[in-house]
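User: Is it possible to get a 3D structure for a protein together with its bound compound? The compound here is S-adenosylmethionine. I've pasted both below.
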Amino acid sequence: MGNVTPIGAPRPRVLEFFAGIGLAKMGLEQAGFSVAWANDYEEDKKAMYVAEHGDNHPFALGDVANVTVDQLPRDAALAWASSPCTDLSLAGNRAGFAGAQSGTFWQFIRLMDDLKDDRPEVVVLENVVGLATSHGGDDLTAAIRAFNKLGYSVDVLALDARRWLPQSRPRLFLVGAQNPPEDCPDPNSELRPDWLQSFFGDPTLDTHRAALPAPPIPKTDGLDEVVEPMKPGDARWWDAERTKKFVSSLSKVQAERIAELKRGDSATYRTAYRRTRNGVAVWEVRADAVSGCLRTARGGSSKQAVVKLGGPGKKLQVRWMTPKEYAALMGAPDYDLSGARTNQALFGFGDAVAVPAVKWLGENYLLPLLRGELGVRTSTVEDALGEAVSNG
Ligand SMILES: C[S@@+](CC[C@H](N)C(=O)[O-])C[C@H]1O[C@@H](n2cnc3c(N)ncnc32)[C@H](O)[C@@H]1O
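Assistant: Yes, that's possible. Here is the predicted structure of the complex:
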């Protein structure tokens, strides 16, 4: 455990944009924050959010484009935006804040702009790592520049959920700070890999790199611990014909790998996902005991299967991954799923952010930043960018 908020200390308040089923809220509240307001436009997600978290703060259900500044609490220290991953084309709106702003990210920026003096001291944008390479880096540059124009210096970190959970889920986190720490060019190369360095080297951007503790080493196993126990006769295991088809679609290497695991005295688990190889849908089993990145269940092809191998009878059994397993793989094993339909839950978790990644960022970066514990850079955004900012 990193910094623990002392009992009685005020919890900094958060505006939670693109709140989904509230896993950012879960991680932030575990770290010591308190969400004061949330927005998402999907009714199914709001239903899960309220079932899990209660309704002790406003949840504005509707398009972020229709949110106005007067709806927002004015005392938030942090604004968190897990904007849709499909919304990568941030650069498309570089025409600026006066132009037509259709992308959801730009709606978030519009509201931060409208908050003026009540703008939170810290903002976070969470997105897929593809944001760093989308349009040759122009989209990430546009996002950093948009935060710079609002007075935030920006740090960019890549964090994979696999550091805490048996799921490969790399994500990018932009941390915008009104009072950034001094830039430490050399810390935490694992958090800011080579492919991010060009953004820190761009003299037209105001960026900083906070010195942070090293996150845990990525996991290569642990799936067995999150698999929902299921009797061999459970109806959710696929029947013999379907299982045979599954096995026959595997490549030779894959088939050999699972044959070896099947001979094991104790049962072990792997995840499998469908791919198209030479125009044919085939299954691939992961070599390691972690799951691939959970995705939304749109279209079905993104759903993962769980393969049980070995143990008594030395069998191979296959079934779809369950909502409870999705929840555990996202770091929310006790999430209230009692009212959620299967697809609603898979969709909600597939879209969400991994709880321990948010908690780690909250405890090790966001709270210490707000408390001034990371130190404060002496130069301002204007100093850093000179004319670029003052001339707009
Ligand atoms: C990447 S997910 C974020 C999930 C969230 N962090 C969680 O832990 O569940 C993006 C969310 O943005 C929402 N969204 C997409 N477009 C929106 C819009 N125009 N207005 C409001 N919410 C929107 C989606 O419903 C989805 O829940």
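The pocket of S-adenosylmethionine is lined by residues 18-24, 39-42, 45, 63-64, 82, 84-85, 104, 351-353 (CB under 6 Å). The two ends are 43 Å apart (CA to CA).
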